[in-house]
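Researcher: Go.
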Amino acid sequence: MRILLLEDEPEMASALKAALERRQVIVDHVSTLADAEAVVELWSYDVIVLDRRLPDGEGLSLIPKLRALRVEAPIMMLTALGAINDRVAGLDGGADDYLAKPFAVEELMARLRALGRRPVTLKSDQIMVGRLTYDFRHREAVVDDKPLDLLRRERLALEALMRRPGRTVLRATLEDSVYAMEDEIDSNALNSHLSRLRRKLEEVAAGVEIRAIRNLGYLLRATA
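Model: Structure:
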């Protein structure tokens, strides 16, 4: 999952970003409405998380602008304004969810998962390719009932490939899935993650291969 976090308090933003990234969420952080507007035209997000009191205005004012830009990601308000009338105003203003500070990170995660969940008809919780099964709900890769021990970015890369089995995933799409906006990406970093991932899949005879498609990207498919 990749989210955009609009939060102007540096300590809150830093703590929240660290907590979510430990839970396999990619977080792009901005601190103003103007920056958020600019970023959504460049990146796609599963969920957008907005504060309300911001240096350049009211967070709710961003919602109609996002919809005018055809940004369809669900929007959660995450704010200290937690009175009933504030929550009503947020939901009536177009927010898909509203969570008041202080909050428990696990509740936030549950709400993010709910917002980011596609209809069951469009997305299965599990996909199996070869002998490899990926559980999107629990973020777990399994071969013959044995979980694979994957590092965070290996897992994120595998998840992106498993969403499109047998189809080429552009290199840029993989990088968007694995790295946050502000991460410095070494030109060989993604190759290194995929190399380690290939080795781990081979060691357990997962029955899949990750092929490099020259000048395009990568695809994951079952082996004969």
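Model: Residues 119-123 have pLDDT under 50 and may be disordered.
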